[in-house]
Structures are given as structure tokens and as C-alpha cells.
Design brief:
Elements (H helix, E strand, L loop, with lengths): L1 H44 L8 H7 L3 H9 L14 H8 L2 H8 L1
């Protein structure tokens, strides 16, 4: 009986250790995902060779679905292009009311 209790105790300790290792592994994966997302957001927000951000470019061509995706993924909506235009100003210049409303929401 005592041997069975000791074995059960060892088994519980092993399970606890395994769960702790799984938790640590999950935290590492989450940290990597967050680092990757932050890296991608930084890359996205950087200006391109023509000094347009992806967001100002998509606003310029009235691609509202792409604009929504970029903003969802953390794109800086206040980042200006080479002319000093923000995505909102570009949408206003293009007369895209739907895009203007979205950017203001």
C-alpha cells in the first residue's frame, strides 16, 4: 500500500513537471509570435523606396479592405508619406467617403 502511494506521488510530481514544461514552452511560443508580429508591424510602418507606407499606398488606390487589414495588424494611421499626407488626408483628397469614415472611426 505504501509503495503504491509513493508511486502515485511520483507520478503526480512527474505530471506537474510535464505541465510546467508545457507552460514554459507555450510562453516561449507566444513570446516568439509577439516578437514576429512586432517586427512585421515595424516593417509595415517603414516607408518604401517611394516614401509611401503600405497604408498611404492602399488609401491612394481606395483599397478599403486592405486598409482595414493593415490597421487591424497595427499599422500607424498617422504615418505621413513624402508629401506629408496622412492616410486620412489621402482618402479626403480622393473623395472616398467610406474610407474617410472608417479612418475616423
Amino acid at each position: 500500500m505504501r509503495i503504491e502511494l509513493e508511486e502515485e506521488k511520483k507520478e503526480k510530481e512527474k505530471i506537474k513537471k510535464d505541465l510546467e514544461l508545457l507552460r514554459i514552452e507555450k510562453e516561449k511560443k507566444e513570446k516568439k509570435k509577439l516578437e514576429k508580429k512586432n517586427y512585421l508591424v515595424k516593417k509595415i510602418n517603414n516607408k518604401r523606396d517611394n516614401n509611401e507606407t503600405l497604408l498611404t499606398y492602399e488609401c491612394k488606390y481606395d483599397n478599403i479592405e486592405e486598409v482595414k487589414k493593415l490597421i487591424h495588424y497595427g499599422m500607424n494611421i498617422n504615418k505621413k508619406n513624402k508629401n506629408g499626407d496622412t492616410p486620412l488626408l489621402i482618402a479626403c483628397k480622393n473623395g472616398n467617403i467610406e474610407l474617410v469614415k472608417y479612418l475616423l472611426s
